[in-house]
Amino acid sequence: MPRFVVSAALTCATLFLSACATVTRGNSEDVVFTSDPTGAQMTTSMGVGCTTPCTIDIKRRKAFSAVFQQGSETRTIAVASKIGSGGVATGAANVIAGGVVGIAVDASTGATLEHMPNPVHADFSKPQSQAQVIAEAHAKKIMQAKAKATAEANKAKNPGQGPTS
């Protein structure tokens, strides 16, 4: 009997922990909406809206468009749902630890996906024809700045632990 209990407990733990991305990242994420100038009315194709700057929790599997309105001007930006860097890392962990069950759970929940661009930024000083490119460049710039800040913070926590020349 004790052998059965241990085996059952291990099986349950393996199944529960096998979906790494679902456990660590969840099936939704905060999507940030900004505009220049601030105060634009933003509505998604899902019917959810807010006044910029704002943040909305959106299911990772949902691709959508965001329509920003400032006076009589509008900017429309497509937001895709793609496998991001965090999803790749947890997907790799599933291959090692979670196996087929973990991969299937994460794929069905969308936990390996990220919204891109995020933040979603509308610049009303530029024409609509440039809105998508500007939004993607803005998101890339923000992500690079966050990565740099994280690297610097880690370096400050662990001086002398960086790569050697």
Could you provide a short overview of the structure?
With 165 residues, this protein is an alpha+beta fold.
Structure characterization notes:
- With 165 residues, the chain is of the alpha+beta class.
- It has helices at residues 2-17, 20-25, 85-109, 131-157, and strands at 28-36, 41-44, 49-51, 54-59, 64-70, 73-83, 113-116, 120-123.
- The strands form 2 sheets. Strands 3-2-5-6-7 form a 5-stranded antiparallel β-sheet. It has a 3-stranded mixed β-sheet with strand order 4-1-8.
- Strand 2 and strand 3 (49-51) form a beta hairpin.
- Residues 146-165 are annotated as: Disordered.
- This is Translation initiation factor 2.
C-alpha geometry: globular
Helical run tally: 4
Report the mean per-residue pLDDT as an integer: 78
Low-pLDDT runs: 8-23, 87-98
**Major sheet details:** 5 strands, antiparallel
Beta-strand share of residues = 25-35%
Total count of strands: 8
Q: What is the N-to-C succession of helices and strands?
A: HHEEEEEEHEEH
Biased composition (Low complexity): 146-157
Keywords: Signal
Region (Disordered): 146-165
Signal peptide: 1-21
